[in-house]
Write a structure and sequence with these properties.
With 212 residues, the chain is of the alpha+beta class. It contains five helices and eight strands. It is elongated.
Length: 212
């Protein structure tokens, strides 16, 4: 992994041969030995919309002309949407030493490389699917079929990167990661606080309506 992900597949087409694309193709592990694969344009767009929504809530909260019930309901709706948008921005694949972690909207799935049997295309969904030796499947539908694949084939990048990472882990002499697929809920300070604030705004709206 220190030399790059696709030493065996450099002839594949991942986009035009510009300096920017060549730099992107040369993914390197960070200080923790991890490689993060995400559609960063989508991530920053979603987080920008989330921040805009939170800013709108702050403006409405200090607006003296807005009604109590209506304002609380609108704030609850915007906060709930902002929480969901932030969670969608968490979607990514992280290649760690000895394992592959897929972060979804709600859950994180960690698959040890030693448990990976194959990658294949699901027949009815059309997305990339990881299958383990025990028969469990993890889909990567969010990482396939993007409009930007016309310019930079990120879908193929993810598939080839995970294959290369799995082969490298199998050939290495590092200690194996704990066997067995793990699924855990994703905690996010921004998303969880926004959801809690949305619930509080909804409760305030109900209390204000009852007092009328």
């Amino acid at each position: 992994m220190a030399r790059g992900l696709w030493q065996s597949g450099l002839d594949d087409w991942y986009g035009p041969g510009t300096r920017v694309v060549q730099r992107v193709r040369g993914y390197r592990p960070n200080r923790r030995g991890q490689i993060k694969l995400a559609r960063w344009l989508r991530v920053w767009l979603l987080r920008g919309l989330c921040c805009a929504g939170l800013s709108a809530v702050i403006v409405m909260a200090v607006d003296p002309w807005a009604g109590g019930v209506e304002r609380a309901l609108v704030c609850a709706l915007v906060l709930a949407l902002a929480s969901f948008l932030w969670r969608c921005s968490l979607i990514r694949v992280v290649l760690r030493p000895g394992e592959i972690a897929r972060y979804g909207v709600w859950r994180r799935v960690v698959v040890p490389c030693s448990d990976v049997k194959e990658f294949h295309r699901n027949s009815w969904r059309g997305g990339l699917v990881l299958q383990t030796h025990s028969g469990e499947e993890v889909d990567f539908l969010w990482f396939d079929t993007s409009f930007w694949d016309v310019l930079y084939d990120f879908s193929s990048v993810c598939a080839d990167a995970m294959w290369s990472h799995t082969r490298a882990a199998s050939a290495s002499t590092q200690a194996e990661a704990p066997s067995g697929l793990q699924r855990r809920f994703i905690w996010s300070s921004v998303a969880d606080l926004s959801a809690a604030a949305a619930a509080a705004s909804l409760v305030l709206a109900v209390l204000a309506a009852v007092r009328r």
